Amino acid sequence: MSTRSDHTGNQTVSAQDQMVSGSAWMTAGSIFSRILGAIYIVPWSIWFGTFFLQANALYGKGYNIYSFFLIAAIAGVPSAIAKQVAHYNALNEYGISVRLYKRGLVIALLTGISIALLLFVGAPLFTGGDRHLIPVLHSLAWAILIIPTMSLTRGYFQGFQQMAPSAISQFVEQLARVAYMLLTAFVIMYVMKGDWVSAVSQSTLAAAVGALCGLIVLGVYYWRRRDHFRGLVAGSNNELVVPAKQLYKEIIAQAVPFIILGAGITIFQLIDQYTFAPIMHLAGNYSDAYLNDLFALFGVNANKLIMITISLSSALAVTVVPLLSEAYTRGNKHEISGQLTNAFLMFEFVMIPAALGMAAVARPLNIVFYGQTQEALGSSILAFSSYLSILLGLYTVVSALMQGISQNRRAVHYFAVGTVVKFIVQWPLVYLLGAFGPLVATGIGLFVTCYLIIHSLDVQFGINYATIAKKTNGILLASIGTFAIARVVVMVGSLAGSNGRIISFVVTAIAATLGGYFYVYMTLKSRLADAIVGDRVAGIRRRLHIH
């Protein structure tokens, strides 16, 4: 395993170790945040009672629109900042990195204010005829004022390979958001017996509350590490002179593609949101309420749970960008090829067992979070979405890889091709397959985009497919074993004859524990984990007494 030296000549950790360490922090923060973002649904659904599916559909529709505006407000600046900061740090020009961050703050503040105003004032134009969405979008506009600055600061830390501040602030942000959501839902719906639309509006306002708390955490980290940053600036080469105008130009040039690629999954979800009901009305005489319920099942409920597993790949993607940027700056094609191979292997190592495991426990898991509401269809959609999450996660990773090597324009072109494919197949698939149609169309569109990107990476830098294939066999065998064990537990659990939340939770927990332990045991026993994650897993093997 190769190591690199910094500008002082000291040995630094290998790129793989940096990727693993960074991914560990980002994965932990992202997973815990996603889990919190899913667990809240249990009490939330109970307090909304018969209004739950309508409330959840409204919440999901509002968040899809908000997510698109948020990505526009953030404007890809955090990832662009992380990439450019890593670039200048690799040149020992830390002073330019600091100036880059300060210029980015100006852009973040301006875009945050302008996009928040656009969403607030223009809310009636984005509702698609659902008047209930107006107060929801108004409440979400406040979060857009805060989140760009918070996200930019996370990107700055990531550019220095400091992932802990981002991960911890992400967790605190989600914790505060969920706490506010549950408190207001309990008071409005359970205590005051109030209006469900008002309760949903307060639940979406929670995004602003959480963002403020996350920003405070980042501020504390920055204050504590200010001497460290000052020391790096003092030891800079100071050989490059980059005017402020050029810094702004670099940020914007890097940021615009991040907007499109970062919004990729959201764009596909918005296509579903605005086309599903019109297509279904042509397919049959369905009521708006029924179609809202169907949209909640595939566009909100299942999506909320699979995002837990997709967050694994998202965490990896965030870690890969600055590392690849450094290698690209040095012009080291061999190192780039190695990092690409490592990135794909780490993605497979965590994503495949997670997706198959969730598919195996889809039925009890769906009952735990959403109760008996259209249980059979909801469980089937969740299982299908779990398989689909592998493609969604792969898209997140490969688009980040392209950005890390400054192939932004090409990546946007490939995404545009996938989006066109999604549009072409959307109508016939929704017409024929109903609620499964949008999911199949998304899978086809993202498959095309991922294929084009991976082929391009292979042509330019070479991907060691032989190494990937050899280790993929081990990952697949262990993952299929995990799936089989979890399925057996679920089948045995179904003999209990109860579909209640408590029994379903117990079954899910047992299946996840046994299946997860099997995967860990097999990958440690075969030394597959060592080959992918590194030598640090030896400590886990000793603690589990695996020889």
UniProtKB/TrEMBL annotation:
<keyword id="KW-1133">Transmembrane helix</keyword>
<feature type="transmembrane region" description="Helical">
    <location>
        <begin position="204"/>
        <end position="223"/>
    </location>
</feature>
<keyword id="KW-0472">Membrane</keyword>
<dbReference type="InterPro" id="IPR050833">
    <property type="entry name" value="Poly_Biosynth_Transport"/>
</dbReference>
<feature type="transmembrane region" description="Helical">
    <location>
        <begin position="411"/>
        <end position="429"/>
    </location>
</feature>
<feature type="transmembrane region" description="Helical">
    <location>
        <begin position="104"/>
        <end position="126"/>
    </location>
</feature>
<dbReference type="InterPro" id="IPR024923">
    <property type="entry name" value="PG_synth_SpoVB"/>
</dbReference>
<dbReference type="InterPro" id="IPR002797">
    <property type="entry name" value="Polysacc_synth"/>
</dbReference>
<feature type="transmembrane region" description="Helical">
    <location>
        <begin position="65"/>
        <end position="83"/>
    </location>
</feature>
<feature type="transmembrane region" description="Helical">
    <location>
        <begin position="251"/>
        <end position="271"/>
    </location>
</feature>
<feature type="transmembrane region" description="Helical">
    <location>
        <begin position="502"/>
        <end position="520"/>
    </location>
</feature>
<feature type="transmembrane region" description="Helical">
    <location>
        <begin position="31"/>
        <end position="53"/>
    </location>
</feature>
<feature type="transmembrane region" description="Helical">
    <location>
        <begin position="305"/>
        <end position="328"/>
    </location>
</feature>
<feature type="transmembrane region" description="Helical">
    <location>
        <begin position="381"/>
        <end position="402"/>
    </location>
</feature>
<feature type="transmembrane region" description="Helical">
    <location>
        <begin position="475"/>
        <end position="496"/>
    </location>
</feature>
<keyword id="KW-0812">Transmembrane</keyword>
<keyword id="KW-1003">Cell membrane</keyword>
<feature type="transmembrane region" description="Helical">
    <location>
        <begin position="132"/>
        <end position="153"/>
    </location>
</feature>
<feature type="transmembrane region" description="Helical">
    <location>
        <begin position="174"/>
        <end position="192"/>
    </location>
</feature>
<dbReference type="Pfam" id="PF01943">
    <property type="entry name" value="Polysacc_synt"/>
</dbReference>
<feature type="transmembrane region" description="Helical">
    <location>
        <begin position="340"/>
        <end position="361"/>
    </location>
</feature>
<protein>
    <submittedName>
        <fullName>Polysaccharide biosynthesis protein</fullName>
    </submittedName>
</protein>
<feature type="transmembrane region" description="Helical">
    <location>
        <begin position="435"/>
        <end position="454"/>
    </location>
</feature>
